[in-house]
Amino acid sequence: MINLIILPLVDLAAEAGGYTITIVCLLVTFASLTTLILIFTSIPKLLELSVKSTLKRKLGTDVAKAAHVHIEADINAAIALAVHSYLNELHDEESNIITIKNAPKQYSPWNSKIYGVQCEPRR
Question: What is the SS3 assignment for the chain?
Answer without folding.
Answer: CHHHHHHHHHHHHHHHHHHHHHHHHHHHHHHHHHHHHHHHHHHHHHHHHHHHHHHHHHHCCCCCCCCCCCCCHHHHHHHHHHHHHHHHCCCCCCCCCCCCCCCCCCCCHHHCCHHHHCCCCCC
